[in-house]
Specification:
179 residues, CBS-domain, 7 helices, 6 strands, globular
């Protein structure tokens, strides 16, 4: 039985489902849980001296939207699909002659695996980033945190609300469903 009110139907004393402690738990957990709890994807990287052509091939092979650009094993930049479109293709630069160093986003905002989830969310929000490099204490890549991982983490805190929503937000069953 869906306890969400049907638009236009009068309330017959039925109350909305209570959220319980879920919001409080989320508020607490984003401060307590570390970025590693979000299970960042394995880092896929390329050397700063590599060509854009090599980077595009690596992105296609790995089926990813960004690469971490490294120099001597440390993250010095990030190269995304957006960088490819705006800095390479729009500028009509040759893929085989353009180096990553020339078109990457230098000194990207990063997080550590032990940083709170809240820190990662704030950094993503402030910068409008969809991906954050996760690096260790000396700047070596550990993973890549995506906005998708953050969304899944948040959804874990509201399963009853997310998984019981009807496919159409304005559609509600007239009768109780199930056994």
């Amino acid at each position: 039985m869906n306890r969400l009110p049907k638009p236009g139907r009068s309330q017959s004393g039925a109350s909305l489902p209570t959220l319980g402690l879920y919001p409080m738990e989320l508020s607490r957990n984003i401060r307590a849980d570390s970025v590693s709890r979000l299970d960042p994807t394995s880092p896929l990287g390329i050397d700063a001296s590599a060509s854009v052509e090599e980077a595009v091939a690596t992105m296609r092979t790995g089926k990813v939207g960004c690469l971490l650009v490294t120099d001597r094993g440390r993250v010095v930049g990030i190269f995304t699909e957006r960088d490819l479109l705006t800095r390479v293709l729009a500028a009509q630069r040759p893929l085989d002659l353009t180096t990553m160093r020339a078109v990457m986003t230098s000194n990207p905002v990063t997080v550590g695996p032990k940083d709170p989830v809240r820190t990662a969310i704030k950094r993503m929000q402030r910068g409008g980033y969809r991906h954050l490099p996760v690096v260790d204490e000396v700047g070596r890549p550990v993973g890549i945190l995506s906005a998708r991982r953050v969304v899944h983490y948040i959804v874990e805190h509201f399963p009853a609300l997310v998984f019981t929503l009807p496919p159409d937000g304005n559609q509600y069953p007239e009768n109780a469903e199930g056994a």
